[in-house]
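Two folds, back to back.
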Amino acid sequence: MQSALLLALQHDGGRMERGSRRRSEAEDAEKGRMKRTIIKDWKTRLSYFLQNSSNSTKMKSKKVGKHRTYFRPSPEEAQLWSEAFDELLANKYGLAAFRAFLKSEFCEENIEFWLACEDFKKTKSPQKLTSKAKKIYNDFIETEAPKEINIDFQTKNMIAQSIQEATHTCFSAAQKRVYSLMENNSYPRFLESEFYQELCKKTPITRAAQGT
């Protein structure tokens, strides 16, 4: 009887192990599908920039008399982005590509916070400074904020106190932390990405172009 009980337990244990393995495989497959969907979306966004820039397409804004033109950067210009993180952030096309890349890595809140801080530091009106400080805090800093960034409790607490009488340095420590995080982690991965490598390639000259 003990032998029968042991066999039953082994059978149940094996069935549970197989069930657990199947659930794990299903979860991994779902994560893989989500990752592929995000990457596909990322490539679609960047391809959109390429198509517009390659054709030098002018995008008309809602305001009459104004337009924007997107230009694909030259390989030499794109290569400059690898020299310094600031070179990438200073280039509108590079910034757009980097934002899309961060979205594919589920950490776009970092660049959004950094940009919000840059805008915040340019604010002159004390009233607007206070309202922007509270919005940044609600969006990125407080616990369970919709775009919560990864900073320590001490920095969070310091920000919570400083926004009561907001100054341009309210978010300086957090912005430096996020900048360092992007520069040391996301930025190197972006430089290794397929899209960036493609931008750095020189377009081969066709025979037809040589003959003209």
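---
second:
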Amino acid sequence: MTSAEVANKLPKDFIWGFATASFQIEGSANVDGRGKSIWDDFSKQPGKTMDGRDGDVATDSYRLWKEDIALLAQYGVKSYRFSLSWSRIIPLGGRNDPVNPKGIAFYSNFINALLEHGIIPFVTLYHWDLPQVLHDRYGGWLHKGEIVQDYVRYAKVCFQAFGDRVKHWLTVNEPWCVSILGYGRGVFAPGRSSDRGRSPEGDSSTEPWIVGHSVILSHAYAVKLYREEFKAVQGGQIGITLNGDWAMPYDDSPQNVEAAQHALDVAIGWFADPIYLGHYPGYMKQMLRGRLPEFTPEELNVVKGSSDFYGMNTYTTNLCRDGGDDELQGLVEYTFIRPDGTQLGTQAHCAWLQDYPQGFRHLLNYIWKRYKLPIYVTENGFAVKDEHLKPIEDALQDNDRVNYFKGITASLKAAVLEDGVDVRAYFPWSFLDNFEWADGYITRFGVTYVDYETQQRYPKESAKFLVKWFGDNIDAGDRKSQ
């Protein structure tokens, strides 16, 4: 290979693979001693999921895990990002509650099998499935004094059990979603909100900010533990992964340019600024005043610098206009309609997502310049409109998703090779169609089609595209050294 060809490829140690989360795929809710998570009962309440279905079976991956790994190996991924179920490992969740040996054994065997296939385990400790008992005992994430200690103990159990083999840890997946969707909008478990039509209790003006604060501290103290007690021996990396989409001014008026920055401050800066820069964004302090919790000097010392990298989940771009009364998106109005009436891009099945790959490149540059740490893109994907209504053979021809990934991969390559952004990993969401939270099984994000009647898996065109693209665009290097 010529040096020019190498220069036009991602570096040989670039990590790519597919991503999932425990509650979205595992099923087997009552098997082998697993305790309930907040999503178990929530998803069974009428009206909480779009199709009225729950996570009891999902893609049945607790039973079909060997088939899943065989498919990952067939795809030739370098890595697989998956999450651990807290209530499978500690069914009651708390720091003095017993550990479930069968839960440990399941994930231990799973990790071993990945490694036997040459697949790097990329492990999320918390992907939204809080043990129900902790919510019942003290309000879960609302009680900083309790949840931080319980989460750190759970993390410790995982580091002890799996850290000899796991070298890539994510503490929490998308704290914005945990806080805003769980305690602000009330559309995700535990479903708390000021909207009494939706929830008998909750306060959208205070609880999201309290929860976000607890999540940041839980993450930070778990990282402190890892660095002090495990890193020297295990040699892994640990960080958090934050969602957040690119925010583009609706037009070039000063107030809309400012609004786009406010959107970034509230969607991303709320978590990234304390963790990487050591303070909440000024705009959030101005907007929330006394409702934004404060860190003690000791806490801030633990929070600042508590992520080895920037974990990034991103899907779309929003055009931003100043105005509106929605604090949960920073008093900014979002739209996909340009001033000339045209749409930003191809519409996905979910209302919040359109295809605009240029925004991905802009966001990578913004994150790199602002936070100055290597970026691991841990989720990115597209749900094709009405895919759930299509016959399987049509659903497999997922052209809109292929086009999405064509644009994204070109932006990724340009950001790395032309802009000099240090991106180390890319995980499309998702490996499989799965339980898409409040959307039930209607919205499909998988690059692999799942027939829920038979649990058969069928690769979509997007899977084939991605496998080929990464095969063609990562420097092969010396295979023996990998």
